[in-house]
Amino acid sequence: MSDTDLEQFAENFHQDIIVGSRDVDAGVFSEEQFTDLMLGYLADAGEIDDREICSHQARGIKVNGYAFFNDNEGLDLFVSHYTGECPPVRVAKGDLQQQLKRLRTFFERAVQREYANLEESSPAFDLADRIYQLRDRLTLVRLFVLTDGIASIDAIEDEDCGSYRISSHVWDIQRLHRLVSSESRPEPIEIDLTREFGKPLLCLPMPEENPVYTTYLCIIPADVLADLYGMFGPRLLERNVRAYLQMRGNVNKGIRETILNNPHMFLAYNNGISATAEEVELVDTDSGMPGIRRIRDFQIVNGGQTTASIYHTRTKDKKDISGVYVQVKLTVLKNPDDVDYIVPKISECANSQNKINAADFTSNDPFHVAIQKLSRQIWAPAKRGSQRETHWYYERARGQYQDDKARKITPKQRRVFGEQNPTGQRFTKTDLAKFEQSWDQLPHIVSLGAEKNYRDFIIRYRERGEFVPDAEYFRLLIAQGILFRRTDKIVLGLKYGGYKANIVTYTVALLSKLTSQRIDLERIWKEQGLSPALEDTIVALSRIVQAHITTPPGGKNITEWCKKEECWESLLNKDILLPDTLKPELVDEDTVLTRDVRARCGSDETGTSGSEQLDGMTARHESAQQGDSIDYEQFIQKLTPQKWLKIIRDAAGAECFSREEIALLRRMQKMSGRRMKPKKAQIVQAGKILQTLAEKGQKEGAES
């Protein structure tokens, strides 16, 4: 890595910070932008699971962000040492140690409940209170110091402090550059089995040489596997095709029950795990079998459910798992370039326990590829007062924007690229998920954090049925993005003092709900901005939202309260009215219905209308049901989102149903996409609507 490459990376990095903080002059806000940008890189690379920005500084303490993981048994705390210097300057070891000390003091005071002097409505108080509430559950605390300088400190030994294992980590601009220049792959996990666990892992090598890989078969104690998961968390599963599914699936429950009730049978019942490594170091053992002493870049590519379930059963159920063993197939690839091709195939072929729903949905998925292609092709209309059309640049993979810009040879070409692709119009996968999920009225999911919200988004995408985005979908998506980002700036300007991210998503979701998604997204796209009436509505709704989320019932933790569906539902129970000035701008129901890209793409094989489907269903029941009302429950449960869309269109065109009845049909469509079972009352009400629609269709058919 040359000094020139590092300086260029640092310059681009600082330009991103400047663009993000241009609306606010305060240096503290620049530090927040730095923290968010730095943690975004680390989250994309799998070094951390997620992040929440939470800036607070006082005498002897400082914190800039945090994330809970491993079912609230692990905590990441982040503190920033932002210099704003470019080229990057060297940061003294003492300065970094001082930042870590202030971060650790914040944690210790929180555990001891010494945070009464913090403002109760602040995110810092919320974080400290949550740490205190989880003090007996936490086992692993990771302290991170982030800096845009070059650190004069490297490794820091882990230490045990009471019941907590505390580790310290330093991320400077140099280390970040190495991460990004290696295609955002996380730093490899290196495990010295002899040092960590007292002895090597016995193994059986494959009998013949192979030019592509070597495979070792091992039996690993469950305690060792659980310790590794405790040390490295989600990083251990970075190449796994899915995240841990908690204890909800039948397979995970079976794993837990076997450990609890028949631990000696676990090896026989469980399929084991498949793992990969870049390199292993073998030693001879007294048994005559070779042993693995050290593993470099260890990754579990199949068996993440087994690993995490073992860990949680030991920690949550306090179960002794010393007699539990797991079989391991460890594949060491001889050519590092084969990793991205072979590892996914190993994972795909080995997977046989849980159905893969979403986490194989990577940046190379056709959905993301299509969005990227559209973002390069479609020109956004010029903003008012300008003649220049621009692109909304979709950064499918972290760093794409800067790479594309850097490939321009002359300064003029780079300037033109920047003008055509403004940094403020760049958006990522997690941004896309926030836009969509807020508009789909899921603010409690968005409040889980960028990465968790993204995972939820892709699961819902798969459950609703995949589709290839078209140009109209892209324009509507960008309109949602403009709405979200403008709401963010409005809320920032109102200076509520904390929980901006929660206020923004709840405000957008509330606006979507109160208008039945009848906001004129088409106009937002054409004008690349919001109308004065819409902005005034956002101001009014954000005040209601801020008051609601910061006064949780029973003094609950505000951050956790925002993540509960109960928070969203209780907000909807309030008597909230839209300003009269916005109502003339709302579009009609037909416009909303035509926005569904699945209908435009013809994803439903049948060309029949909803009424025709109902006519056929009615005819099939005539002989059996004579005179009785038709039981629509079974029929309703088989309806796909696409068929619901056709029924909704027919019902809207029939002009004999109320807005509430149409809204019910739309809820049924969403529940179908999410595989949720409707309530009995909803089925009965929807059945009556369908019956009326079918009878109307029969009558019209007879008259013609």
Largest beta-sheet details: 8 strands, mixed
Helix content: 40-55%
Q: Could you say which structural class the secondary elements and strand pairing correspond to?
A: alpha/beta
Number of strands: 18
Q: How large is the radius of gyration?
A: 28 Å
Total helix count? 30
Oligomer: single chain
Distance between the termini: 77 Å
The coarse overall form would be globular
Q: What is the residue-mean pLDDT, rounded to a whole number?
A: 82
Q: What proportion of the residues form beta strands (DSSP E)? A: 5-15%
Low-confidence stretches: 23-28, 241-251, 352-360, 602-610, 615-629
How many structural domains can be distinguished in the coordinates?
A: 4
Descriptive notes:
With 704 residues, the chain is of the alpha/beta class. The protein contains 30 helices and 18 strands. Strands 9, 10, 11, 12, 13, 14, 15 and 16 form an 8-stranded mixed beta sheet that branches. Strands 1-2-3-5-8-7 form a 6-stranded mixed beta sheet, with helices on both faces. It has a two-stranded parallel sheet with strand order 4-6. Strand 13 and strand 14 (290-296) form a beta hairpin.
